[in-house]
Amino acid sequence: MADAHTSAPGLLDPLRRFLDGDVWASFKRSPVTVGAAAVTLLYFLAAAFGPWVAPHDPFDLAKLDLLDSLIPPAWMADGDPRFLLGTDDQGRDMLSAIIYGSRVSLLIGFASVLLSMVLGIALGLLSGFVGGAVDAFIMRMAEIQLSFPAILVALLINGVVIGYFKTHPEWQVDQVTLAYVVLVLSIGLSNWVQYARTVRGSTLVERGKEYVQAAHVIGIHPAKIMLRHILPNVMGPVLVIATIQLALAVIAEATLSFLGVGVPPTEPSLGTLIRVGNDYLFSGEWWITIFPGAALAILVLAVNLLGDWLRDALNPKLR
Amino acid sequence: MVAFIIRRFIQSLFVMFVVALVSFAMFQFIGDPVNQMVGIETSLAERAALRERLGLNDPIVVQFWHFIVNAVSGDFGISYQHKRPVADMLLERLPATLELSAVSALFSLLVGIPMGVYTGLNRDGFLAKVFLTVSLIGISLPTFLIGILLIFLFSVTLANAPAISVFGLFAIDPSVLQLPSFGRGTVVDLGGWRTGLLTADGLKALIMPSITLGLFQLTLIMRLVRSEMLEVLRTDYIKFARARGLANRAINFGHALKNTLVPVITITGLQIGSIIAFAIITETVFQWPGMGQMFLQAVQNVDIPIMAAYLMLIAFFFVVINLIVDMLYYVVDPRLRVDTGKATGHG
């Protein structure tokens, strides 16, 4: 610690502590986790730098050539080396479409996880800190929502929000933005319960501790105690939930898009690609749907494995 | 026990009330339902008459009261898009969804429990590890993707596969295994209940959709039974049973499996509700003419009466199943019959 005081309060200090810690050690010990992390990182990088790494721009209509449509993957008899994973019905390169699609899927996934996390933490903190009728009300609502599968809740919210925008033309939004907003709202609002329950549980524990009582005694405003003192101490489990929820959010986005209430085909996510490709399954062009499907499955599997490991690593009881 | 059931019943009524409130609120959210029901050429006077007839000029609490009274008597209003009573439309499609859900629940139990017992008893066996790995992948695959993969394998690939010769003795044509990939096949009308369970065609059409729908529950049940078996096998009374020299089979199935059943019943009960809801996805993939497909179309067209009715129906199923599960505890676990205080705290 002396080191940390003499040198500038180092940015590297938390990193060094992390590298010496149990979490990093257990990470290194599990080859499956390292693999999952590598795959996840690859997806994140591909999504972040999509326009620069993708071999083609699948949305530039000027560059699409219908003569290039429905070309099988490069290693098959009629394949074309320009299109590694083949092309779809409009001559779009599947590999590029998948990279752009992962970008959309992950963007919506992150945004909806963020929404449900903020909402869940706020309601959980409030529930645990205030208690009483507020607590009872929030938790009853959580129970009732939890009894319905998230995808059903998401579909309902989806329908209502679309209906709201349809009947309120004063909101000038284009179709793609509307789809994004609807998806983030429906996935985000249908998944806050997990966070709220966990945060409430930890808040109840923290509330009874001495540092909180001391803060009360010296007259700190309750809202400040809640945000500055309790919140940092209940964030650990939230991270685990957020990781697993990211996988669930990506699945939910893909499912909603597949069901036709998600991202429109003009700027497809992975789910939209699968939906579009599904129409070509019977005519033999399997690559249009199977490759985006595989991309989705691998992404979800990798994030799930990472979440599983994180849960075990942060929970000493399971070790 | 009676007190416990009454308390659960009141809780269920509360859940139904909140769901009804949410359903009712959906109508308010999208603006004037009259606009959804009439054409552009309808005059203002006609609109006002319709508004009065629908009771839209009443105070909101009165409207909500009418909504509940109507719903209880089975009147869920008229679909905006189809101009037909929602209750009739739901009833027509109920058999398809219920048959699909029942068959997939059965499938997940009949396959999941034996797999769970097996992986619990041979925890280090090769096959057990294969089961567990496959189940992890199964959880990661979204439902609709499983359906698409099954269609790809059993409807597309098998249809085009060449015949396989077995030791040059006889040939197997893989296309006999080919499965229909959409619709219910031939259905028989049993007094309004159109069933696909009585024809070979209809049963064949059920195979892929019910596997798709049941696979997630299967992995869930398998993992649950496995961990419960591992837990139970460590207990003293199992050790004692072994010391008494009871046969392995009697111990594993008579003593151990029986004690894993309480959580299995809970989870299965809770999952039946989500099976019915997840049928939305499976029905879309396999073009299964059930309630889920209708609900999805309603979401796309913002047909609020159908959405509200479907939500309340699912809530009703959920509440009823939960009550049944609570009562089943008493049948399965004799301890609860004595210790009611503990059981009510369980909820």
Could you characterize what this model shows?
The complex is a heterodimer of chains A (about 325) and B (about 350). Chain A has about 325 residues and is mostly helical. Chain A contains 15 helices and no strands. Chain A has helices at about 1-5, 10-20, 20-30, 30-50, 50-55, 95-130, 130-145, 150-165, 175-190, 190-205, 210-215, 220-230, 235-260, 270-280, 285-315. The longest helix of chain A has about 35 residues, at about 95-130. Mean pLDDT of chain A is about 80; it is low at about 1-10. By secondary structure, chain B is mainly alpha-helical. Chain B has one domain (about 95-345): MetI-like (MetI-like fold). Helix content of chain B is about 75%, strand content about 5%. Chain B contains 14 helices and 4 strands. In chain B, helix 6 (about 125-140) packs across helix 8 and helix 7 (about 145-160) crosses helix 10. The radius of gyration of chain B is 25 Å and the shape is flat. Mean pLDDT of chain B is about 80; it is low at about 340-345. The interface between A and B is large, with 42 and 47 residues.
